[in-house]
């Protein structure tokens, strides 16, 4: 068997390792059966291609590689990585592009040492090792970031460039470029497209991360503005309560005089009615106590007053300890944004349908918080977060998720019928 026949086997092993690196395939997360199946299917495809290369010969074998190499690897990695069809299409095209350096090296070796197949195979193996090293050092982090954060539309658009390269290579397969000679024209036709495609990959990996980081910075700034806005609202609420308390303290002597006058006149019923009115006013001034956490009590009291003013049923059943892993500003941001969004939703409903339910508990040393509200209409989500069409809005829930993830927690937004729920779980320590 000619030593060049092994090239089909080695290139597939190279591609498998390359995809393993660029896609950050976590074999340790697979079940034992999946690990065996993953390894065996790759090995079987490589062996089948080795046999096909021997049986058909290199010239005929190259016509089958779409069906014998590309589609099987597409299906194998799609199944085991669950990354999605569009992303997998992009990555298979990328793997094809990364085989181009070995083709370039093969051409150079054949021109220098014609007919030396052992030298050719050795050169290919060295090229594969160097390319894998470069992929691990320079491309792995960028591709991992891209696969985690970019959506399918991004991959569909940017698959055009490697796909055009794919078509270019197959169109040139078997063509004789010897008429171009060995000058710049020949080098340009053979190698410049490959260099341009690699430059394209460097550009999208670099600029995508920069643009996304800029967007994240803008979102963080918007979240900070929300925190400041929430804090200002709570300060205004406290100032209002303090002012009302000061006024009531000033007027207490007048209330006592009025009650005394009713009692001296024998108007006991009037005195009792007046006292009930005073109690009601005092209750309105007092901060409601829902839990051990004073900040949460203050926030919930503020929204409870707002609910009464707007005809919203406001049910609260919370257990929140005095000490929380979140800072006070983060607690304010999470709770205020969640309840404010609920208010915005129920205000569009008829008064009898306006209801908000707040629930929290400590279970397994984790804080569980749920904010539920009725809504009318359709919820549009992006990246798992409901989005708002109103200018300047839509950052609240994103800010909540960012804070919760910072503490290793989980955040979920879901709709069931006409009830929307935000649920979070945060480790206490």
Summarize the structure.
The chain folds into two domains: about 5-175, no CATH class; about 290-429, Heat Shock Protein 90 (2-Layer Sandwich). The protein is about 65% helix and about 10% strand.
Total individual domains: 2
**Order of strands across the widest beta sheet?**
1-2-3-7-6
Q: Low-confidence spans: pLDDT under 50, at least 5 residues?
A: 177-181
Helix content: 55-70%
**Could you report the average pLDDT, rounded to the nearest whole number?**
81
How many β-strand stretches?
7
Note the beta-strand portion.
5-15%
**Biggest sheet overview:** 5 strands, mixed
Q: Give the helices and strands as they follow along the chain.
A: HHHHHHHHHHHHEHEEEEHEE
Shape: rod-shaped
Structural class: alpha+beta
What does this structure look like?
With 429 residues, the protein is of the alpha+beta class. The protein has 2 domains: 3-175, no CATH class; 288-429, Heat Shock Protein 90 (2-Layer Sandwich), CATH 3.30.565. Helix content is 67%, strand content 10%. It has 14 helices and 7 strands. Strands 1-2-3-7-6 form a 5-stranded mixed beta sheet. Helix 1 packs antiparallel against helix 2 (32-56) and helix 12 runs parallel beside helix 13. The chain is rod-shaped. Mean pLDDT is 81; it is low at 177-181.
């Amino acid at each position: 068997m000619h030593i060049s026949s092994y090239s089909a086997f080695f290139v597939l092993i190279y591609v498998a390792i390359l995809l393993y690196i660029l896609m950050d395939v976590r074999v340790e997360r697979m079940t034992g059966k999946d690990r065996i199946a993953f390894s065996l299917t790759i090995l079987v495809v490589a062996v089948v291609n080795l046999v096909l290369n021997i049986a058909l010969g290199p010239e005929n074998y190259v016509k089958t590689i779409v069906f014998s190499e590309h589609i099987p690897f597409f299906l194998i990695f799609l199944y085991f990585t669950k990354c999605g069809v569009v992303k997998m299409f992009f990555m298979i095209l990328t793997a094809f592009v990364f085989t181009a350096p070995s083709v370039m090296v093969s051409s150079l070796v054949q021109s220098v040492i014609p007919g030396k197949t052992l030298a050719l195979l050795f050169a290919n193996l060295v090229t594969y090792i160097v390319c894998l090293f470069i992929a691990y050092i320079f491309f792995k982090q960028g591709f991992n970031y891209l696969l985690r954060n970019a959506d399918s539309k991004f991959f569909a658009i940017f698959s055009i460039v490697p796909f055009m390269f794919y078509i270019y290579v197959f169109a040139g397969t078997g063509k004789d470029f010897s008429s171009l000679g060995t000058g710049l024209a020949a080098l340009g036709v053979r190698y410049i497209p490959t260099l341009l495609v690699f430059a394209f990959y460097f550009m999208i990996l670099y600029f995508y991360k920069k643009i996304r980081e800029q967007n994240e910075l803008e979102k963080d700034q918007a979240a900070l503005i929300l925190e400041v806005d929430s804090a200002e609202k709570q300060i205004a609420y406290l100032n209002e309560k303090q002012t009302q308390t000061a006024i009531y303290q000033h007027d207490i002597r007048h209330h006592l005089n009025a009650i005394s006058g009713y009692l001296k006149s024998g108007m006991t019923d009037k005195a009792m009615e007046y006292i009930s009115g005073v109690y009601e006013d005092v209750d309105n001034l007092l901060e409601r106590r829902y839990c051990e956490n004073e900040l949460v009590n203050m926030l919930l009291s503020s929204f409870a007053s707002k609910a009464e003013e707007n005809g919203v049923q406001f049910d609260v059943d919370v257990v929140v300890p005095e000490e929380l892993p979140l800072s006070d500003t983060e607690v304010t941001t999470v709770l205020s944004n969640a309840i404010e969004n609920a208010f915005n939703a129920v205000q569009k409903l008829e008064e009898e349908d306006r209801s908000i339910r707040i629930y929290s508990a400590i279970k397994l040393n984790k804080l569980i918080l749920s904010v539920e509200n009725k809504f009318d209409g359709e919820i549009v989500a992006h990246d798992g977060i409901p989005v708002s069409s109103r200018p300047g809005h839509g950052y609240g829930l994103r800010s909540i998720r960012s804070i919760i993830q910072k503490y290793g927690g989980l955040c979920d937004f879901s709709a069931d019928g006409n009830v929307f729920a935000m649920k979070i779980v945060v480790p206490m320590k």
